[in-house]
């Protein structure tokens, strides 16, 4: 099946997926700005992943003919050039650049999720400690992969590439599961109805698609190793990662409160902050902007809001945390 894809067809599929990722990311940025009035650090991380994805797509486009020729030589469909031919050097360079860009895209997506979860659950000290551990493990694995890439850049190390693929898959899938476990752990301690927990769990479990695709790509690389198959799954993995990182904010469009809030902001109206008194809000005509160190929950008041039981020990009443975005 995979051998039926030509270089042109793979390029068409790659850029189609990349375009979908760019469009959904653009929608993510628009929703964030329309609902929150400004961008956050996770938006910057996501923008980096989109830019890296575009660079990776360009590198893939340039490298597909080299990989196709290597596959053709391996099938003995054409005579192999001498080892001194610059073709091999160019191929190894492209392979290193593409592999490095793949991991940079994947780890920037992990960073996007980590920052998003930090902003979402910053009322919990327990979560903050777990979050620090997850950040340290995630970026330690990136350093390990970077060192491994440096060692694998020579032709001498290529004979161990199958073992390297396995290590890469284990590190990538392992860090994905660590990142995903953070919000799921928090959901279990929140005072929510079971249906609300199920919805939140489903939203935060979207990231499961990425490690599944990574496992499929690794299996394809180890078992068949066909050019078309590896290229197909590699293209799918990075674009799916960027797309999945865009989806959580789209939940805003599925709720009446979220759509109403966006319409209000687009029309120039601002929701009042929960700390404003009715008289003060009436005098201003709109809600006050939250200070940089203060969370505002007015934007999604009445939407799926969560309560951290630990936070209630340190604040009067309780601190509500909106799901799909950070309000200001």
Which regions are unreliable across 5 or more consecutive residues at pLDDT < 50?
269-328
Please work out how many helical segments DSSP would assign.
Answer: 10
* Elements, N to C (H/E): HHHHHHHHHHEE
Share of β-strand residues: under 5%
Termini distance? Answer: 49 Å
Q: Average pLDDT value?
A: 75
Radius of gyration: 23 Å
- Strand count: 2
Strand order of the largest sheet: 1-2
Instruction: Work out the helicity level.
Output: 55-70%
Shape: elongated
Classify the secondary structure makeup into a structural class: mainly alpha
* Main pleated-sheet profile: 2 strands, antiparallel
Molecular structure report:
The longest helix has 35 residues, at 86-120. The protein has a two-stranded antiparallel ribbon with strand order 1-2. The protein has helices at 7-36, 41-74, 86-120, 125-151, 161-188, 194-204, 209-223, 227-246, 256-266, 278-284, and strands spanning 305-307, 320-322. It is an all-alpha fold and 328 residues long. The N and C termini lie far apart (49 Å).
């Amino acid at each position: 099946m995979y051998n039926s894809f030509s270089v042109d067809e793979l390029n068409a599929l790659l850029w189609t997926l990349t375009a979908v990722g760019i469009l959904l990311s653009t929608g993510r940025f628009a929703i964030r700005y329309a609902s929150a009035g400004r961008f956050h650090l996770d938006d910057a991380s996501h923008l980096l992943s989109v830019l890296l994805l575009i660079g990776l797509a360009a590198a893939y486009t340039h490298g597909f003919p080299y990989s196709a020729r290597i596959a053709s030589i391996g099938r003995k469909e054409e005579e192999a050039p001498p080892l001194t031919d610059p073709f091999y050097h160019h191929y190894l360079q492209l392979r290193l650049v593409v592999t490095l860009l793949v991991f940079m895209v994947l780890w920037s997506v992990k960073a996007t999720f980590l920052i998003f979860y930090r902003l979402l659950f910053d009322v919990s000290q327990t979560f903050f400690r777990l979050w620090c551990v997850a950040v340290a493990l995630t970026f330690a694995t990136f350093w390990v992969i970077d060192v491994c890439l440096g060692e694998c850049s020579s032709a001498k190390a290529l004979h161990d590439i199958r073992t390297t693929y396995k290590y890469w898959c284990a590190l990538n899938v392992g860090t994905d599961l660590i990142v995903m476990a953070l919000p799921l752990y928090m959901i279990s301690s929140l005072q929510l109805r079971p249906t609300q927990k199920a919805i939140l769990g489903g939203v935060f479990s979207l990231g499961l698609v990425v490690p599944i695709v990574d496992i499929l790509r690794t299996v394809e690389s180890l078992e068949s190793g066909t050019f078309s198959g590896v290229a197909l799954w590699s293209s799918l993995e990075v674009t799916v990662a960027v797309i999945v990182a865009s989806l959580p904010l789209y939940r805003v469009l599925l709720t009446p409160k979220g759509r109403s809030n966006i319409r209000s902001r687009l029309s120039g109206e601002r929701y009042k902050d929960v700390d404003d008194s009715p008289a003060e809000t009436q005098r201003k005509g709109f809600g006050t902007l939250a200070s940089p160190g203060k969370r505002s929950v007015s934007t999604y008041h009445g939407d799926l809001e969560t309560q951290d039981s630990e936070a209630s020990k340190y604040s009067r009443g309780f601190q509500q945390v909106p799901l799909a975005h950070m309000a200001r």
